[in-house]
Amino acid sequence: MTALVRTVLAALTAALLGIVAPTPALASASASASAACATDPATPKRQLRAMWISSVANIDWPSRTGLSVSAQQAEFRSWLDLAVRKRMNAVIVQIRPTADAFWPSPHEPWSQWLTGTQGRDPGYDPLAFMVNEAHARNLEFHAWFNPYRIANHADPNRLVSTHPARRNPGWRFAYGGKLYYNPGIPEVRAFIEDAIMDAVSRYDVDGVHLDDYFYPYPVSGQTIPDSATYDRYGAGFATIGDWRRNNVNLLVRELGQRIHAAKPHVSFGISPFGIWRNAGTDPLGSRTSGLQSYDAIYADSREWVKQGWIDYISPQIYWHIGFSTAAYEVLTAWWSDVVRNTGVRLVVGQAAYRAGASGEDSAWQDPAELSDHLHDNRKHPEVVGDVFFSAKDVRADRIGAFTRVVDAHYTRPALLPARGSGSAPGTPSITSATRASDGVRLAWNGSGTAYAVYRVDGAQSAADPCFFADARNLVTTTRQRTFTDTTAGGSAYTYYVSALNRTHQEGTPSAGRVVEAGGGTFSVVVDNASPGFTAGADWGTSSFSGQPHGTDYRFAEPVAASDPAWFRAAIPSAGDYRVEVWHPSDPGYNSAAPHIVAASGGNRTVSVDQRSGGGQWRVLGTYTLAAGTYDVVGVSRWTSATGYVIADAVRITRA
């Protein structure tokens, strides 16, 4: 170790212990110290992890039109809770799918995908609700807009009478059985920007996201009907293709400028088609032979990056490793080269919808394919995360493909990649850290937008900067100033808390706070929203009952197969433990729900009548448990009794 690194480590350690005050140079010192630490690529400190929640045609949310306000809201909360369980830190939600709005816009009508009728008020403000719910879980909310699509049909008379596309027929054209705004008309571009900026200015969104629909994808035998527009506005362009690309470029550049002028902390990203151009057409292109978005839909995505008009790019690399037309590994390498040294972050769009789906190539029937994509990403430091299409496919987890992703890559939380050059917040101070029946309860003071909580085994007399170099010790991130660590066992721990600002710059961690070993007082609670809970795709999420532990619970129909929901816990030492369960009750729930306890010497099964006795802890019994972290309690669906089987929370206490 060089003298410089030793000096940096000593300075950092002293600051962490409160011996010296943090200095402006500490951030660079921290980076140098982190470089000297051995980090695990499986537990990166920073990574964007997101899923697209699509509203068009009710793909993800709402699941259908006409749901009540409470049902819509419960569904959306369940998507956010899914993201939290999968240790994601952002969601990308479609709020303008077809020239309409999921908020009370002065420019465009209410979306038909909410109520079934375009222009009908849904009875609440969905965008305000969604942003608040995402932030309550410390998830970034990226508002997803489709810029030009008006309708998935070609009949303007089916639009609500006040629709701008009906009031301005010259703004639109029909192509391929759909209606689009004409990107070549300056008034159209200004209108689209105004419609988007209304949401940006009025709501606390973290990002603005455009998808891959620019000019329409080609339809055989049809020509885009914009020759008259080209004649009027295309002076100076040698071809109509160059003019069309410039029209899209103007929207991208101007929208980025307007977003950053209004709210510098808001991130602007686009998810283009995965191929810009093929090397056979352009030496700057990729070693692929598929559709070229530069030529087919006039999306010059490489130019957006090179000009720095966007903050991140999320190319939809929806092909498997080794695919002859467009191999995943070829395109990640190409896009990594494109973004290198530009300041634009690369977040890969992943085809979760293909994993295990009927009719897909054999490569997609391999449960490891999706996870292997993220292994490939590790070869490229330019890749800072992934976003999965779409939420329903993450939940379906066909062939266990997404479970593979979580188990191999998302075992710990991750901070979002920092952006910009804002100053990191000051150092928090932990004011209390105490053991309780539900875990270790922490409280602290601080001035951050959010906080990162770290836990290190044992009573640490000094903070090693390597504790914080990756996410192996990261327990959670939160916007609150309190947290209960329900995963803590009975061992001694040292906790640290750091503060983050709106653009995710992290300040110096607090002085460590030691929690002594719990001995015989060990007790841990695992809720269905805890990281230790897992369940298959057939387990739904509900907040119907007023008796949940936490905000919701899981339910499933009984079947002649086990398919248990599991509660995993860290048992500190072998011994006898009292096992309790919490469930809401209802006459329609199961009268003999099987509960499996993974006791030493073999599993024990106890049937619980969930029709009554809910909203409180119910003792299953006292069992001898082995030490270690494992699935301790399962709730099985294998019962001949009727009614939903419920899985909500378990509590394990040293007897």
Give a short synopsis of this structure.
By secondary structure, this protein is of the alpha/beta class. Helix content is 24%, strand content 24%.
CATH class label of the largest domain: Alpha Beta
**CATH fold-level name of the largest domain:** TIM Barrel
Number of helices: 15
- Count the domains: 3
How much helix, percentage-wise, in residues?
A: 10-25%
For the record, the CATH architecture of the largest domain stands as Alpha-Beta Barrel
Instruction: Round the mean pLDDT to the nearest integer and report it.
Output: 92
Computed CA radius of gyration, to the nearest angstrom:
26 Å
What name goes with the CATH superfamily of the largest domain? Answer: Glycosidases
Shape: globular
Distance between the termini: 48 Å
Which structural class matches the secondary elements? Answer: alpha/beta
Could you tell me the strand content as a percent range? Answer: 15-25%
Low-confidence stretches: 1-32
- Give, in spatial order, the strands making up the sheet with the most strands: 1-2-3-7-8-9-10-11
